[in-house]
Amino acid sequence: MLLTLLTTLAACTDRMSPSDDRWGRDGELIAMSGGEGGARYACVSCHGARGEGNGFDAPRLAGLPAGYLQKQMEDYANGLRPHAVMRDVARFLDSHERVRVANHYAALPVPVEEGLVSAASVPSALYVRACQQCHGVDAAGTPLGPPLAGQPAFYLAQQLRDWQVSKRRNDGHHEMLKVAQALSAAEVEDVSLHLSQRPPHPARPVR
């Protein structure tokens, strides 16, 4: 149990240990070039030069916790989070390169988007019931869950649907399976839209 908790906390920290990031300055180059995979697998082709995402099926990476980003790449590579393109992207990177890319995106400023609905800053009752305990009052993330605010509604809804059928199964506790399966199809759409309209914040440092 203790090992599982420590693994979860590490995955949601804001930055990996400096000893694990000996070549951190190269993270941007890998993200721009695709590393061994070449330009076809460059992170920026879907997630943007500033890590802003594409507003549809590629989420924002800028300002997300480095530990979380690294874990997602490992899970893509190992098949715990299925996605054909991301599987190949992750497999083209070795463990050191994944740390470098994760630290690069974690250090980027969170893009400020015009037109986000200010009223959405107030948590919806559905969000409070289903998500707030792990993702925080303002959806900026906690040691138990990553930031969700400002992510694309389509992306968030797709992740919830993947959790519902256990297509995605990489949280270690199966909590997301339980949470997602308790939501109706309409609730999946509602909470995803709500989160997409909330202003994003940088992940809180975990010290």
Question: What do these coordinates show?
Answer:
The chain has 207 residues and is mostly helical. The chain has 2 domains: 2-107, Orthogonal Bundle (Cytochrome Bc1 Complex, Chain D, domain 2); 118-196, Cytochrome c-like domain (Cytochrome Bc1 Complex, Chain D, domain 2, Orthogonal Bundle), CATH 1.10.760. It contains 11 helices and no strands. The chain is globular, with a radius of gyration of 16 Å. The model is unreliable at 1-7 and 18-24 (pLDDT under 50).
Task: Outline the secondary-structure elements.
Layout: H1 2-11, H2 27-33, H3 44-47, H4 66-78, H5 84-91, H6 95-107, H7 125-130, H8 132-135, H9 153-164, H10 175-181, H11 185-196
Helix pairs in contact: 2-6, 4-5, 4-6, 9-10, 9-11
Kindly summarize this structure in a few lines.
By secondary structure, the protein is mainly α. The chain has eleven helices and no strands. The protein folds into two domains: 2-107, Cytochrome c-like domain (Cytochrome Bc1 Complex, Chain D, domain 2), CATH 1.10.760; 118-196, Cytochrome Bc1 Complex, Chain D, domain 2 (Orthogonal Bundle), CATH 1.10.760.
How many separate domains?
Answer: 2
| Helix count, DSSP H or I runs of 4 or more residues | 11
What is the H/E order?
A: HHHHHHHHHHH
Q: Radius of gyration in whole Å, from Cα?
A: 16 Å
Give the percentage of residues in beta strands. Answer: under 5%
Number of β-strand runs: 0
Protein name: Cytochrome c
Domain Cytochrome c: 118-199
GO molecular function: electron transfer activity; heme binding; metal ion binding
Pfam family, one: Cytochrom_C
